Amino acid sequence: MESGGRAGGRKAEESLMARVKTGAAGPCPCGAGEYVLCCGRYHGGALPETAEQLMRSRYSAYALGSMDYVRDTWHPRTRPHDLQHDTETKWLGLEIRRHAAAGNEAVVEFAARYKLNGRAQRMHETSRFVREQGRWFYVDGSFPED
Ligand SMILES: [Zn+2]
To answer: Cα separation of 99 and 101, whole Å?
Structure first.
């Protein structure tokens, strides 16, 4: 038996890949439909056309523990060195409030609900994205007052 956080992260990664491969039916964590028809496409290698699609797929990757995807879609300039799957946080839902794009820059404002230590919490962020060579990247976020 394996134990510890690293085994947990790998397991989540494997279960994600299994879902992508088998096309297992199930709702997408981002709430926009079937996983395989929604963020599963991007986790499987398709490129999001809009920053909102990237935002949704990054949220779903957090929810599924697919930290490689989170890392790969983070702009190299602002990407953290060490990204660990936070198994304490259970992501409960995503609400996109605003998406505005101008050329190769975009902002997406969202609210995400999650549970930490049994307590429901909410995160409200305005994220900035840039597109380089046809690929959208997350740059950074600010936290507007409610
Ligand atoms: Zn989705």
So the answer is: 7
Closest CA to 54 of 120, 107, 115, 112: 107
Q: Tell me the pLDDT tens digit for each residue of 95-112.
A: 999 999 999 999 999 999
Domain-wise residue ranges, the chain:
5-142
What's the one-letter identity of residue 119? R
Tell me how far the alpha carbon of residue 51 lies from the centroid of ligand 1, in angstroms.
13
- Assigned CATH for 5-142: 3.10.450.50
What distance in angstroms lies between residue 2's CA and the mean position of ligand 1's atoms?
30
Neighbours of ion ligand 1 (CB under 5 A): 28, 30, 32, 38-39, 56, 60
